[in-house]
Amino acid sequence: MNVLLVNGSPHQYGCVHTALLEIQQTLNKEDVASEIFWLDNKPLHGCLGCGNCRKLGKCVTEDAVNVFIEKAGQADGFIFGTPVHYAAASGAMTSFMDRVFFSAPSGIFRLKPGAVIVSARRGGCTAAFDQLNKYLTISQMPVISSQYWNMVHGHTPEEVARDAEGLQIMRTLARNMAWFLKCKQAGENAGIQMPAQEGRVSTNFIR
Question: Binning pLDDT at 50, 70 and 90, where does residue 207 land?
Fold first, then answer.
């Protein structure tokens, strides 16, 4: 079992990394492998709307998006982390999520558990949290929760490390993720089949 932890901060070892590290250490104790995937701090543009990903199974732009999509096929679960910028996910993280969830091969996230974590100095967490969760729920991903909304507070990694409640939320989230993955694996070992998938119906509301 392997969980991909996405760091959507321009700072590789900043506040988001501190929260993800708490998750990673707890997953390790639960015998679940994990990898922290940093988006880097290079420019990452939004979707061009060209539609070529539908033919290629990946984005036409070769950057962190396609590197992640390659790894995603082998991952069993995902946790997406972002700093809060103006009560929303970072610009790079928003572009990343738009392009990943649009350009990835169909079904790559289906029924794989996912979660979102957010980091802010003070406010805007729940708005960013709601924003990123929508990518999971439109992709048939079971959303893993914790004892509170998945957020940490602090202006520096050192301050986040002192957010006792926030770090406990991260540990609880990690244990819940590990439990879900083990239950899913047990179900598969017992022969429980994936739910039937209907053909997609799209309805436009212009008459």
Answer: low
Res 34 pLDDT > 70: yes
Residues present in the chain in total: 207
Q: Residues near 8 by Cβ (< 8 Å), separated by ≥ 6?
A: 16, 39, 80, 81, 82, 83, 89, 90, 92, 93, 96
Task: Give pLDDT tens digits for 53-80.
Answer: 988 888 999 999 999 999 999 999 999 9
- CA angle 40–42–43, rounded 5-degree value: 130
Residue bearing the bigger pLDDT, 88 or 207 = 88
Angle at 57 between CA 189 and CA 65, to 5 degrees: 90
Please give the backbone phi and psi of residue 114, each rounded to the nearest 5 degrees, phi first: -140, 160
For the four alpha carbons of 39, 42, 47 and 50, in that order, the dihedral sign comes to negative
What is the DSSP track for 136-157?
HHTTTPPBP--SS-SEEE-SSH
CB 166 within 8 A of CB 151: yes
CA-CA distance, 120 to 151, in Å (whole number)? 8
Amino acid at 28: N
Which amino acid type is present at position 95?
S
Cβ neighbors of 170 (< 8 A, separation 6 or more) are 19, 20, 22, 23, 26, 117, 146, 150, 152
